[in-house]
Amino acid sequence: MSIVGNLLQIRSTLPTRVTLIAVSKTKPNELILEAYAAGQKDFGENYVQELVDKHEQLPKDIRWHFIGHLQSNKVKNIAPFVYLIHGVDSFKLLKEINKEAKKNNRIINCLLQLFIANEETKFGLSFEEADAILNSDELKQLTNVSIMGFMAMASNTDNESQIRSEFRSVKTFAAKYPQLSVLSYGMSSDRNIAIEEGSTMIRVGSSIFGERNYTK
Ligand SMILES: *Cc1c(COP(=O)(O)O)cnc(C)c1O
User: Fold this and answer.
1) Cβ(27) to ligand 1 under 6 A?
2) pTM of the model as a whole
3) Which of 78, 76, 38, 73 is nearest to 55 (CA)?
């Protein structure tokens, strides 16, 4: 199917609470523009330089989501324009985002990334660490970041009940913070489980653009 066909098919299944983020990492501008022409405005990228280049070259009303692992020293490159940073996994990173947001006279929206997978390789905060950040006095001084909710990635497994319980653990944790209502979980393979388990943002790459030819 075409990119537009894929998009329309996925959108037709979404509850209204769910925002679809088209994950365009490694994909060329021409394909992004096809999705954009079909009304897609939210795009996700994992790599800072690729995101900076695409932001420069593509329409300015695109909402760019940074969904990768962000190093503190690269925050300054995306701070002028990024719409939502999904992968905040330390207080240090949050402080750096606040600093760069201030320089740009903006408030940057962030999600705290929670570690829920049964794997060593994924980044993220434990529930306890997230609690500590959210309840810290220091957070109140970060006037140029706005924490909107949580992001998570489930284990890379075929075991549906495991994926489901991992997503459910985020939903249960997040219920303690009703004002943090954005829940970013679900990718191409597990998006339907994610939606059933309360996701409000799914990040979908290969089901829209096809398989990626290379990974960086
Ligand atoms: C690449 C990526 C996605 C999209 O993955 P697909 O399986 O292609 O849908 C979603 N979230 C994150 C954090 C990613 O790195």
Assistant:
1) no
2) 0.96
3) 78
